[in-house]
Amino acid sequence: MTSRTLWTTTALTCTGVLAALSSPVAAQQRTDAAASDADIVVTATRREERTIDIPYNISAVGGDRIDANKTRDQAELLRSIPGVAVVDRGARNAGVLNTVTIRGVNVDSAALGDYAVSAVSPVSTYVNDTPLFAAYLLKDLERVEVLRGPQGTLYGSGALGGTVRYILKKPVLGKFEGRVTAGLSHVDGSGSVGYDGDVILNIPIGDRFAIRMVGSRQHYPGITDYVNVYTLDKNGIPVAPKGVLAPDAEYHSVKDADFVHVWYGRIAARWQPSDAVDFTLTYNHQSDDVGGRRQITRGLNGWGQPYTGYQNGSVQLEPSTRHVDSVALEANVDLGFATLTSSTSWYDHEGDSVSENTGFYAQAGFLSFYYNYPRPMASAVRSYRDRSFIQELRLVSKPGKVFDYVVGAYYQDQTLFGSQDSYLRGFKNWWDAATGMPGVVTSDQDFFYRRNEKFRDRAIFGELTWHVTPSVDLTGGARYFWNRSRNNTQMVVPIYTALSSPTNAYFPTSEDKPLFKGNLSWKFAERGLAYATVSQGYRRGGSNAVPIVGRYAEDPSWQTYKADTLVNYEAGVKGSAGGLTYNLDVFYIDWKDIQLNTLTPNWGFYVVQNGGKASSAGLEAQIEGRIHGLHYALGYTYVDAKLTRNFYSPDPSHVLIGRDGDQLPGSAHHIITGSADYSFDLGDDTSLTLRGDGFYQSSTRNAVSTSPKYNVRLPGFSIWNAGVTLRKGNYALTIYGKNLFNAAGVTGRFTEAYMGTDPAVGYYGNGSKDLISLPRTIGLSADIRF
After folding, report:
1. In the record, which residues are listed under signal peptide (predicted)?
2. Would you say the pTM of this structure is higher than 0.90?
3. What is the rounded CA–CA span in Å between residue 13 and residue 244?
């Protein structure tokens, strides 16, 4: 099936949706409408509760809905949840950096993502009970929960701005079941068709033991053309067709360079030796192989020609690989008066990439240090690794008439590693030939960087709820943590003999602090709840371990960074009446000692700095309901997130980073979400389901900065999706369209002033780029259940 045929089919389907929704006869034939998200049972409070009964703003998306919508990645999923913003970096950088923003709590540039930063994300992510950001494929999920605001009194890893939980389906005891799914898709701009497939098996062994296995493969051909890539010799050096001293170079084009190949697997074993004891052991693995960036260049190349369509101006390919492994043992023991839960987990998340840095060298004036070598190709080879062991214990009381409680203890031993090896490919050969002084330049490598960090975090936390009356609850929560960290950093500029002596820096830090939470709720109706919450959030500090003596010394003020904290005030009402479910809240956040990932001014060490204050105020509103069989949901969020104090660098130069009143990056003032679905019973165990959804966000800013080199306005955009599923018994066929109107959906930018072309110094490519959303995608998917 061609792209044009698929697009025509989807357009006709959308017309059919509109016709069906206006037909009273069709409205009476609905047999398979989606369940209300408000009635999804979640464990966000560490007890099984409906979202409508939880006294703060929580959203939940069921795994069946995620699958029915053919949700492709984390960015698409989170865009469907009201008030959640995300920088969409594509598959190449999706797993490197957690870019989720809730209630505007973010100051980091959207241009980050090529390397793992030291500061933890303001939003914590969990896979079951393991605090892990892995960007696993969204396969065989029970549900996804999004908790807004600090969560340190219920979750061991804490959270500054919110928590996202990915809850996997457990093995089902006493039942054999399975599913096979296969799909084809075409993305606008691609020269080929992608495919994906999943196999899920649930195998019971007796009545008390079961194994569940998931295997997935994604193979997407890419859309981005790298149109002026250097042709390289067998040593990876740009070819010099007229000799090494001549200025000439040879270029070629690589079509659909950003291919995506992913393998994902999971196996879980569940043993229930008695009705009071339950064990689940889960292993997850994912491997990503990505050929380049899904990011396009808007400007001109060095010959004055514009880049068009899905073209990238890098002079080299930018592949990446990633591997994630995690093992978790979760045990639940019913003690009668309470449930004791133990979560023991380990994970290893590592990756590497090659990045085009030539545009950065050109715009920063660095190429003059290399005597304007005529074929500049600056490669940044980066890697990262995050390994952790986590143990969490919780005791959750059974529902009581007067008091309920949750108490827990948390321990994490985490090792982080980051590296960068930068090369100006071919420079040594050119230098030796041009100067006749072969001993001065040692190699093509001009930067060597290693960062080794160790964190140990211990915390006790809990909440106590007093049932003042049958309809009024008062909850108090507290967390006390103490952590230790150490950082060892090495750096050298090895390219010239005179600069090749290494610098090492080591620095330990420690901190401890209590946090508190208070919540008052009133159940004014059987399905009606009003609440008010005050909660403190915290993000750990650490050390940058930059050298303060020697050739590569920085000012001592860059040596460490401290925790940043915020206070979240929230009041809301939620409930259901007459078939309409509603949720409305207002919030105000006061954030201080803000952590910003940045670079030192002298030698470009990766560091975190504190500075400034910020606030975020707004409202969040969602409704969900049915009209004659049509199931719909609408959400609106207003966020005003801004600096409330000037942000200065910590060194004596006291450089102004951001101004009081500046909008925080990645935070849109307005976000609107909407979805609808409708099912027809066609008889003979056959049904037809129509669905559609849309997302809109207003303009955002790219970075906290006083310079338009980094801080630019990114226009607002909307994305619309639709799909049709025909199901007969255990067989189903789905046709779907993503981003039907092909919006660019830019959520980040590397500007030309930062990484653009400069033919005057021999750079004819262009490293500037826009971080675009997935273009229009048309797909066909089939599945069989048994």
Report:
1. 1-27
2. yes
3. 59
